Structure formats: C-alpha cells, structure tokens
Amino acid sequence: DAGVTQSPTHLIKTRGQHVTLRCSPISGHKSVSWYQQVLGQGPQFIFQYYEKEERGRGNFPDRFSARQFPNYSSELNVNALLLGDSALYLCASSSGTQSYEQYFGPGTRLTVT
Amino acid sequence: AQKITQTQPGMFVQEKEAVTLDCTYDTSDPSYGLFWYKQPSSGEMIFLIYQGSYDQQNATEGRYSLNFQKARKSANLVISASQLGDSAMYFCAMSPAPSGGSYIPTFGRGTSLIVHP
User: Fold this and answer.
1) Closest partner CB to A97 (pick from B93, B102, B108)
2) Which of A109, B33, B62, B115 stands the most exposed, by the fewest C-beta atoms within 10 Å?
3) What angle do CA A70, A77, A68 make, to 5 degrees?
C-alpha cells in the first residue's frame, strides 16, 4: 500500500504570495494532521481533520487554513507569505479517533524569499 | 500546556552498543501518551514507540524500549544494539489523550544520534 503522499516536494514563493500544499493519506485513514517544522526544531501542530471536520487547531495565525475532502485528502493554504513561513510542512495520517500511531509523509519544503 | 525537554543536542554511540536518549515532560493532564519518532536526513518522521500514561509496563518495539518513570516525568528511549542506519534525529513527544480525533503530539527539539562503525 502507498504511504502518505505530499505535493509538491519543494516550493519557492515570494513574500505576500499564497501557497497550497496537498496531502493524500494512507488508504482507509480518515484523519489528517498538518505540522510545520522550522530548521533545528521539532514539528509544530497546525491543524487536524477527521471526517472532514476540524478537530484541532494549533497556535498559528488566520493566514493558515486547511480543509479535508470527501476522499480524506487534505489541503493546507497559507496566505500573505512571510519569510518566517519557510519550513518543512509535514502531513500525517491516522486511522481515526483514539489512534496514537501517525504516519508521516515526506513533507513539502517551502522557501519564502 | 505540555512541555517536552530533550537536553542532549547530540549523541554518539559505537555500532552494536546500546544508547539512551533522554526526555522529560511536563503536563497537568491525568491521561496522556508519550511518543518517540525518528527523522532521517530525508525528512520523513517515523513512529517508533508509544507509552500510555496508565500503562504499567514499559513499552518495547524490537530494539526500542521506552523507560517510563511517571513520578519523575521521564520517558527515555533506549536503543539496543545500535546500527549505522540508526543515525538520525530523534524526537520525543507527548499528547493528552484525545476526547475526539487522534492524538496531537507536542514535540521536543530533538537529539541527533550518530552511530560510529
């Protein structure tokens, strides 16, 4: 079975632009979480979705938004990009509620210039 | 709020030896989970092991074991018989037990492990 997939792999954007990152969970997984990992730090939680509903939101500004589609894939949108948004964005999927095992994708490396 | 502390920025170990990676945590939640993840240079986070706060026995997964000392709020990872492929960043994380949805781990800053031949 395919693991969690993310696209694109790398992305370079200019300050003020908008970006959309995509994630496809493992087949059968209904929960998707997004994390931001700045160089030299651990991942920071951004959003969690389960069955297309937002189940958790981290301490990120409203410029960050996400959604989950009927096929459980997900998009993370970031508006008005800042230099500080440069990071590795990780998507993780899990089977559902109460699940402790999360499977991470390879991430999208976003560089904002 | 949860806090995870990993005090070892870097660790070195000889191949085939055991190594302990330290992790302490702070939480006011009565029920929580503790996790360890491995992140190779490729960037992908790999789940290694989980320990529930009410589990009586330390978790083990192959060469990985979690030394859980609840009173000391400590959750150290022990890797036995280190292999060259174990060289990576290791992250300790914890999450309150979810009331709905999945666990949402808060991660530490990580420990870089280098295994020497």
Assistant:
1) B102
2) B62
3) 15
